[in-house]
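Exercise (ungraded).
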Amino acid sequence: MPIPNEYNALISLLFRRTMEGSITWEKIAYNQLQTTINDTTIRIWAGEDDQTNERFVAFQLRDYPSSYDDNTIDHWYVEQGDSGYAQMLDFYDTVRRQVSGVSERLKSLMSYLETVDSDKIDSSNESGSRNPF
Amino acid sequence: MIGVWLTLWQVVKARKASEATKRAIDSTVNTLSAINHLSCTEQLCSRSRDVMHLISSRNITSAAIAAFELRESLAKHPMFKTDARGYLPEFWDTLEKDIMNIHEALESAVTIKKLDSELRESLVLSVSSIHMLLSELAGKLNREVGKENAYSK
């Protein structure tokens, strides 16, 4: 199933706003990521179907605030091989990195590595494994 | 004078009998409470076992329903969010959150009729951890019921 037509523009805009950092996502249960904009919660997750082994990215629109009733407004998914899969996977990975704070972690590492003396880098670990190179 | 002493002796005797009755009632109430707690906890164990089996057998729709029922039974548990028997409210909060996360993940999988294989493994591990916690609680309550019965004999 490709990305539904009425979602193409929204996905592109969400992607752009996420890259700019103007939309903040959070990790909820397990591999699910979500953001809430006004009265709508957007949830995305990705994985490999347990039955078919097809990789997929799923998208869900939900009412906010949630209630005990089913608050899903709409949902769809794209599978590997569908048009839009690469775009959705890229989007999911971008969100996942934002949620995990990958960018800040890399900046911190780079800043440390650029400023510290080479003989002071503490790369040891408890197991005593050595870099073979 | 003998009449006064007799009356006093009867009062003391009646008071001791009343205290013994109160102790017996307290012990019975404690035993009944422990039996009720144990029965409700065994029900939770049974539901968590169902959830685990249904996820393992890839029956996600039934697993989502069973997870909801587990969540519902937890909310109705007489010890839920109390500090009864040394279990702090935080214990119940964590349990509730974990079960809610499992339920939500399963519901999302049901909407697209797809369950990620890694997620399935994580869910099985999470539910089995919850099942073990509940089983430990059931074991503790079982011992308490035994103890209460021994005291009441």
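Further reading is listed at the end of the chapter. For now, observe: The mean pLDDT of chain A is 87. The interface with chain B takes residues 28-32, 43, 45-51, 53, 56, 58, 60, 70, 72, 75-77 of chain A (CB under 8 Å).
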